[in-house]
């Protein structure tokens, strides 16, 4: 009886040991496989992400490039040296330089005005401001009688200097004299990097003779006037 019990106990211990070995073996064979699988999954995922990232980046870059192009077309790009941006309520915003202006039909005017330096007498040559703005096709309300008379032009020069003109002041249909984008003074050409200068023959003071001109902005007073009601 005692031998039988001992034998049964030994057999049970042996079976338990074998079972433990099998479980351990199964666990070891599964773990490396799982670990490799996990590593493989991470690698595959990383590879997928890496392969997806360039295309996504390219798409984003393309989108950004398109947006940049649209911004450039909308006249948001930095101005070049001596460049004048024409924008605002216009159908075709664009930029113009002294070189461009010199290629256009020229007008000449003799003016006298006072400035901080005293009385000035000069002869300027340049392009009528109205011609330059007309190229941009200002958007005035044709349904309004003389809708262009609601328009104005803001001229910005060096040092953020700015002056405003009513559209009637530059429109030859209303004004006797022509505001010019001058390319030279007394026969001496302006430096290309300096840009053109506004010349306002009807003014007795030189305050609106905007130098180093870099922006012409067309607007209408309706939004301001109507909004103030």
Low-confidence stretches: 13-75
Question: How would you name the oligomeric state of the polypeptide chains in this document?
Answer: single chain
Radius of gyration: 40 Å
The order of strands across the largest sheet is: 2-1-10-5-6
Order of helices and strands: HEEHEEHEEHEEEEH
Average pLDDT works out at 78
Number of strands: 10
Please give the share of residues in helix. 40-55%
Structural class by secondary-structure content: alpha+beta
Through-space gap between termini: 116 Å
Q: How many distinct helices?
A: 5
Proportion of residues in β-strands: 25-35%
Name the overall outline: globular
Q: Let me know the largest β-sheet.
A: 5 strands, mixed
Q: Which helices and strands, and how do they pair?
A:
Layout: H1 2-73, E1 84-88, E2 94-96, H2 98-102, E3 107-115, E4 118-128, H3 129-135, E5 151-157, E6 161-166, H4 167-170, E7 180-185, E8 188-189, E9 197-199, E10 215-220, H5 222-227
What key phrases describe this protein's structure?
globular; alpha+beta; five-stranded mixed sheet; 5 helices; five-stranded antiparallel sheet; 229 residues
Short recap of the structure:
By secondary structure, this protein is of the alpha+beta class.
Care to describe what's here?
This protein is of the alpha+beta class. 41% of the residues lie in helices and 25% in strands. The protein is built from 5 helices and 10 strands; from the N terminus they run αββαββαββαββββα. The strands form 2 sheets. A 5-stranded mixed sheet has the order 2-1-10-5-6. Strands 3, 4, 7, 8 and 9 form a 5-stranded antiparallel sheet that branches. A hairpin with a 2-residue loop joins strand 7 (180-185) and strand 8 (188-189). The chain starts with a helix and ends with a helix. Residues 13-75 have low confidence and may be disordered.
């Amino acid at each position: 009886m005692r031998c039988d019990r001992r034998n049964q106990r030994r057999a049970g211990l042996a079976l338990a040991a074998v079972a433990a070995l099998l479980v351990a073996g199964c666990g070891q064979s599964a773990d490396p496989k799982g670990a490799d699988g996990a590593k493989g999954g991470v690698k595959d995922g990383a590879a997928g992400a890496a392969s997806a990232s360039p295309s996504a980046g390219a798409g984003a870059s393309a989108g950004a490039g398109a947006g940049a192009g649209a911004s450039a077309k909308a006249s948001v790009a930095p101005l070049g040296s001596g460049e004048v941006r024409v924008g605002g309520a216009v159908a075709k915003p664009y930029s113009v330089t002294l070189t461009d202006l010199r290629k256009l039909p020229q007008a000449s005017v003799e003016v006298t005005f006072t400035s901080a330096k005293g009385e000035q007498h000069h002869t300027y040559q340049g392009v009528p401001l109205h011609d330059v703005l007309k190229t941009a096709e200002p958007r005035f309300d044709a349904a309004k009688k003389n809708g262009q008379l609601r328009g104005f032009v803001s001229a910005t020069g060096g040092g953020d200097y700015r002056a405003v003109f009513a559209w009637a002041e530059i429109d030859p249909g209303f004004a006797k004299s022509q505001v010019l984008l001058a390319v030279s003074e007394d026969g001496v050409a302006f430096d290309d990097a300096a840009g053109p200068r506004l010349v306002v023959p009807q003014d007795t003071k030189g305050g609106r003779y905007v130098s180093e001109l870099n922006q012409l902005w067309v607007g209408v007073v309706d939004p301001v006037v109507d909004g103030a009601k």
